[in-house]
Specification:
single chain; alpha+beta; 5 helices; 7 strands; 26% strand
């Protein structure tokens, strides 16, 4: 299996990963961190998809997609932090004033998980940010290593993370991609603390 990562410029492919089964349903569309909360609350149903379609039409797109042949099988949201709610976050600190990019959501389609696609998506997001001149890229994954395995076994894999909350990624996957711990946060997902992971691109 050869997975190729490309900028998310085809709306139909983004919809395959992020869109609802019913066109009028309200789903995140990966907009919750991208747009101001007021706009996020105002955009309902099909208007959310229309907003993402417009993002796909303006380069470099709202993120990257992983393809297995012509089939989109994974998604990662990446954009300048200044264009996201992370620019104003009270729980996730800024390490410095560099105009960094943020990578905040990774999703792999059911049936394609546990095949290393998330690692390819992280690498693709890094390359997109680098190509756009980003001095560094940040992610805000879950740190599930501190809690050990379930049942007191302290397994090396860390505590299990609920799939619905795994969109932020986990710390060890970003460490494998060369990111280093830059700061702790006061944000948590599913009971796990989130950390700021940073990769310098200069």
């Amino acid at each position: 299996m050869t997975i190729e990562v490309r900028p998310a410029s085809r709306f139909e492919d983004v919809r395959a990963l992020l869109g609802p089964k019913s066109p009028g349903a309200n789903v995140c569309w990966c907009l919750s961190y991208r747009i101001p909360s007021r706009l996020n609350n105002e955009l309902r149903g099909p208007a959310r998809g229309a907003y993402v379609a417009e993002l796909c039409r303006t380069g470099p797109g709202p993120g990257v997609l992983a393809y297995d042949g012509d089939e989109p099988v994974g998604w990662a949201a990446v954009a300048p932090r200044s264009d996201t709610s992370f620019a104003r976050s009270r729980t996730i600190p800024h390490v410095d004033d560099l105009p960094v990019w943020s990578l905040w959501c990774i999703r792999v389609r059911p049936g394609h998980r546990k095949q290393g696609i998330s690692h390819v998506l992280i690498a693709g997001a890094v390359e997109l940010a680098r190509a756009q001149g980003a001095p560094a890229i940040e992610a805000y994954p879950i740190d599930n290593s501190a809690r050990g395995g379930s049942g007191g076994s302290g397994g090396s894999g860390g505590a299990k993370v609920d799939l619905t909350m795994a969109y932020a990624g986990i710390r060890k996957n970003f460490e494998r991609a060369g990111f280093t711990h830059a700061a702790d946060t006061t944000s948590a997902l599913a009971g796990h603390p989130r950390v700021v992971m940073r990769l310098d691109l200069r």
